[in-house]
Amino acid sequence: MAMKPVLVFFACALLVATQISSLVEATETEENPPAKAPTHAPKKPYVYPPKKAPVHDYVPICEEYCKKHDKKKPIYNKIRPCMKACTACGKKCECVPVGPNKCNNWDFVIIHGTRFDCPV
């Protein structure tokens, strides 16, 4: 007879233990849902490098023209201002005077608000 109360006690203890373990499992799954697979960042479209600026048509002609321009000054002072003015004047007049040929409007050009005389 003493066995009945012990068996009832163990049955109740087992029932309470299973109820508690099922509650613990239920709270764990609600708090920590299964991890989702990582999403990848969207691919960015390929950006092409900028195109190089086209070389102006008057550069080689003006190099020849400015070599003869003023041979008494040092090279930097001789070539750079002459090339700047020659290419701007060539663009304005759409020609560069070669030899005896003359160009219309080959007098001056305004670059960034500064007046430059076309090389003679």
UniProtKB/TrEMBL annotation:
<keyword id="KW-0732">Signal</keyword>
<feature type="region of interest" description="Disordered">
    <location>
        <begin position="27"/>
        <end position="48"/>
    </location>
</feature>
<feature type="compositionally biased region" description="Low complexity">
    <location>
        <begin position="37"/>
        <end position="46"/>
    </location>
</feature>
<protein>
    <submittedName>
        <fullName>Uncharacterized protein</fullName>
    </submittedName>
</protein>
<feature type="signal peptide">
    <location>
        <begin position="1"/>
        <end position="26"/>
    </location>
</feature>
